[in-house]
Design brief:
Elements (H helix, E strand, L loop, with lengths): L21 H4 L2 H20 L3 H14 L3 E2 L9 E6 L3 E6 L9 E7 L4 E12 L2 E9 L12 E8 L5 E6 L27 H4 L6 E5 L11 H14 L9 E7 L4 E3 L5 E4 L2 H15 L8 E7 L16 H12 L6 H9 L2 E4 L3 E2 L21 E4 L3 E2 L10 H13 L4 E3 L9 E2 L3 H5 L4 E6 L1 E2 L7 E4 H16 L2
Parallel strand pairs: 1-2, 4-13, 4-14, 14-20, 15-21, 16-18
Antiparallel strand pairs: 2-3, 3-13, 5-6, 5-10, 6-9, 7-8, 7-10, 11-12, 12-22, 16-20, 17-19
Helix pairs in contact: 2-11, 6-11
This protein binds manganese (II) ion (MN) (2 copies).
Length: 473
């Protein structure tokens, strides 16, 4: 039994929001937990650079903790995985209360901005064999030149066989480079242009090789040599690239950043940081939750959530139908609607932490500060709150209450100054089904760049926030 506490003097009516540098309030034990959590996270974010790789990671790791894929899971199983085309995954922990009482969902996207290989990528110019790319998501193109890149993905043969291709990650692997223009000759071609045109989409061509086929009258000797090499190594031919998902991503590994190691630098943290913390929150639940808890790991957010693996698809309904049937419930239209209206969702996505070098894009009272904790965002969108889910005051109060009760360190922020720009998340696609939904995730520095930075404190508090949401009764 706890010692009777002396009655605390509180003046709630006058207490203003006070944010603190979390490193100044963490105990030694807290700090240890934060750093240990970041070590595992770095391993994940270094090794999972595509949605497919994240899918494999989350499903394999879940299986180790007792999860089974729907279809294989026996009656009475509480831990069920539902997959969608190897690119999106629902990690479901069935609650003590039946699913008809609604579920708790934390939805994060596991795709990230990158360069996709074009379907006919090969050409040669100036005695160099090159591969053409088509950028995916919102990138600043100039950030992708003159840096080591790796290739990740699969080519699917006519017979359906999948050939995995990964090159550029091992220290002994070659990397891929898009060479920038030297400053000496950039005066007219680059310095006179505005930033989006300094490097164009069609200039994002990756060096692939130089050896050529000998004793042949072929016009494309370099490309032919390259195709021979790829055929020998992977057993694929030129046409197989038409049916391939090959992604060019930064070859860097996640590293600690700063003398005191308080930050993590890594590619693809938007939004795999939320994917990881959402998954970790479900996977780590000590006991069966009251409400069915779902880590909803979705694809295609960076290009508008379209397609069958994106949040605009009806896949969520399919999940509910399956879960209702699996637990022996009716799964008619009325029931599905009922489940949705009783459910609650966190749209788990990153926000923009204030970058000290570009403070003017924020309104500081309503901006995310790195190291102050997970960020609660009532709405995203742009202009006069266009194209967004705005969480109701009631639901925002409920989530704030859950976080405060669990002593989660959180802050409130909008995405930048009014009319400065804007952006969206899957929140509006989750809420369109009738679920109360709110945006919540860590603030990043250098978001959408090849090397995004996060405070380990914010990483930790994000995990704690999602866990508190799932554990709430
Ligand atoms: Mn995102
Ligand atoms: Mn993004």
């Amino acid at each position: 039994m706890a010692k009777t506490a002396r009655k605390r003097r509180t003046e709630p009516s006058l207490r203003r929001i006070e944010l603190k540098n979390l490193w100044s309030i963490y105990s030694e034990k807290d700090t240890k937990s934060v750093f240990a959590f970041a070590e595992d996270y770095k391993k994940f974010i270094s090794s999972c650079k595509t949605e497919r790789e994240s899918y494999v990671y989350f499903s394999e790791m879940s299986k180790k903790s007792g999860w089974e894929f729907f279809g294989k899971a026996g009656k009475g199983t509480k831990k069920v995985l539902i997959g969608n085309r190897d690119r999106a995954l629902a990690v479901v922990y069935l609650g003590k209360k039946g699913i008809e009482n609604g579920f708790r969902l934390v939805g994060a996207h596991i795709d990230a901005p990158r360069l996709d290989l074009k379907q006919k990528p090969f050409f040669e110019d100036s005695n160099i064999a090159l591969m053409k790319t088509h950028y995916y998501g919102g990138i600043k193109k100039y950030q992708w030149v003159s840096r080591p890149l790796a290739i990740h993905g699969i080519a699917v043969l006519e017979n359906g066989k999948k050939v995995k291709i990964e090159m550029g990650e091992d220290d002994n692997d070659p990397v891929f480079v898009i060479p920038d223009l030297l400053p000496h000759l950039a005066k007219n071609v680059q310095y006179t242009k505005t930033l989006p045109d300094i490097i164009t989409g069609e200039q994002l061509n990756v060096i692939a090789g130089q050896k050529e086929v000998r004793n042949e009258k072929s016009k494309a000797k370099l490309v032919e040599f390259l195709l021979g090499l790829l055929n020998k190594k992977y057993g694929i031919k030129e046409e197989d690239f038409v049916s391939a998902d090959l992604e060019i991503v930064p070859a860097d590994k996640a590293r600690d950043a700063g003398f005191d190691r308080t930050f993590v630098g890594a590619y693809g943290q938007d939004d795999r940081i939320c994917g990881y913390t959402a998954w970790k929150a479900v996977e780590g639940l000590k006991e069966q939750p009251d409400y069915t808890s779902i880590a909803f790991l979705i694809d295609k957010e960076e290009i508008g959530s379209d397609g069958p693996t994106g949040a605009q698809s009806s896949w969520l309904l399919d999940i509910i139908v399956k879960l209702l049937a699996f637990t022996g419930r009716k799964n008619d239209f009325a029931q599905i609607n009922d489940v949705l209206s009783r459910s609650e969702a966190i749209s788990a996505d990153v926000n923009a932490a204030v970058n000290p070098m570009f403070k003017e894009v924020h309104e500081i009272n309503n901006a995310a500060i790195s190291g102050y904790g997970v960020v609660l965002t009532k709405f995203t969108g742009s202009g006069g709150k266009y194209s967004t889910n705005e969480a109701t005051a009631e639901f925002t109060a409920r989530i704030r209450g859950i976080f405060n009760k669990a002593r989660v360190h959180w802050q409130f922020a909008e995405l930048g100054k009014i009319d400065e720009g804007g952006g969206g998340t899957i929140a509006k696609y989750l809420s369109k089904w009738g679920m109360n939904t709110i945006d919540c995730g860590p603030g990043l520095l250098g978001m959408h760049s090849p090397y995004e930075v996060v405070s380990k404190a914010d990483l930790w508090e994000t995990f704690r926030a999602y866990r508190a949401f799932f554990e709430n009764k």
